[in-house]
Predict the 3D structure of the following.
Amino acid sequence: MSTIQASRPLDEERLMAFVFRAVEEVGATLNAALVVMGDKLGLYRALAGAGPLTASQLADKTGVAERYVREWCNAQAAGGFVEYEPDGNRYFLAPEQTVALTEPDSPAFLPGFFQVAIGSVLDSPRITEAALSGAGVGWHEHSHDVFDGCERFFRPGYNANLVPSWLPALDGVVEKLERGVKVADLGCGHGSSTILMATAYPNSTFVGSDYHDGSITTARQRAAEAGVEDRVTFEVAPAAAHPGSGYALVTMFDCLHDMGDPVGAARHVHDMLAPDGTWMIVEPQAGDRIEDNLNPVGRAYYGFSTLLCTPASLSQDVGMALGAQAGEARIRDVVTAGGLTRFRRAAETPFNNVFEARR
Ligand SMILES: C[S@@+](CC[C@H](N)C(=O)[O-])C[C@H]1O[C@@H](n2cnc3c(N)ncnc32)[C@H](O)[C@@H]1O
């Protein structure tokens, strides 16, 4: 089939269709910057619930120059991110756009997703250069939009799923958390998952760690803001050196595949766990075969994987570079190579797979 496709003559109509599809892609690429611009300048928030506004009214509300606001509004209207009312040249947000663009706690919130995308794109010249030699680029070497965007993108999904469905899907874990046990959250970034668990289970104690000191500084601030400092501490440590043992629960949220030596990390988790302890591994949604992932979610994740996750792993010792679309079979191989014997998929959402591993 593919040989026939490769050897057939050029089809002018297909060529034009491909070019027009690319026009859409260029618009989408630019839209990533425009969404981040609208988020940072408060344009979406000013539109939310305000009813139809002219560009000049929106400019007055936000203090942004009217000529920029007008052009931004037209680009947004052309892309379906803002609605346009020709009668009176006014712009407004539909209820769904309001939720997705202005409510940071909604699982549908999008600006964080765009922020991590734009941060990755802005850092891409370094990745292009590294690709020639095969060198890595560490997570810590990225711009602030990558760290902040990642937190803003993941946190609403954790809010919606972690306590209501992911933890209950693990065997006997919720009862232990309610009673009061020790939990370690490795590769915790800004600590959203750690703080969320600590808020829900005040009898347990939580240690979050990440090798990136900047992320740990932010995580400590977030814990103070959330008022959970009495039961949460954060440490700068690579996963393979997270301190302590006897943990009833070890968690990793969207970070195992970023590590250079995930098998080494798995071995360390094995040693950190109490004999009946549980390791929860949250990974991006992915199938085992490339063709399983050739869809919009897989496309976004392969993109992040090329620009963030694969270089991050290659920058560390071993450099296994699992990639963000590793799939269940490869995660299972890593976990069992680390000495854990029980492994299953406990839950899934359109964006994540949740695995349970035990000794
Ligand atoms: C995609 S972010 C996820 C952060 C956080 N778990 C969350 O869900 O918001 C990946 C994280 O893995 C961390 N990381 C990468 N390699 C690591 C390693 N070897 N040990 C500990 N953390 C690591 C990065 O610093 C980054 O914070």
In short: The pocket of S-adenosylmethionine is lined by residues 139, 150-151, 154, 186-189, 192-193, 210-212, 215, 238-239, 253-255, 258-259, 312, 316 (CB under 6 Å). The two ends are 46 Å apart (CA to CA). The chain has a mean pLDDT of 97. The chain is about 50% helix and 15% strand.
